[in-house]
Each structure stands twice: as structure tokens, then as C-alpha cells.
Specification:
This protein has 57 residues and is mainly α. It has a single domain, classed as 434 Repressor (Amino-terminal Domain) (Orthogonal Bundle), CATH 1.10.260. Helix content is 67%, strand content 0%. The chain has four helices and no strands. The protein starts with 6 loop residues before the first helix and ends with a helix.
Length: 57
């Protein structure tokens, strides 16, 4: 059994733990809400990118 979350799901989990909506995250990261949605659906995001997004929001 694999206990790891795909990268996009990890980003979504971290965003939700902070209580931030996609629209709010998009505004803070200066990208569109659609880009956040695509990011969260992606399975191959670098760990570095996730941490960068997490600490920016």
C-alpha cells in the first residue's frame, strides 16, 4: 500500500490546512485560480515547488 499523496493532493491538503481558498492562493501567488486547480490535479509536481507555494500562501 502506498501511503504517499500525489503532489497536487499534497498542495491541496496544505492549502486547506491553512484555510485558504483557491482564489486566495491564486491572488497571493499572482496566478489564476485555474492554474491552482490544474496544479492540484497534477501528480508530478516537484517538492521544491510545493514548499515554495506553501510558504508563499
Amino acid at each position: 500500500m502506498n501511503n504517499y499523496l500525489p503532489s497536487g493532493e499534497l498542495f491541496r491538503l496544505l492549502r486547506n490546512l491553512k484555510g485558504i481558498k483557491q482564489e486566495q492562493a491564486a491572488k497571493k501567488l499572482a496566478i489564476s485560480q485555474q492554474a491552482i486547480s490544474k496544479l492540484e490535479k497534477c501528480k508530478n509536481i516537484s517538492t521544491e515547488k510545493i514548499y515554495c507555494y506553501y510558504y508563499c500562501i
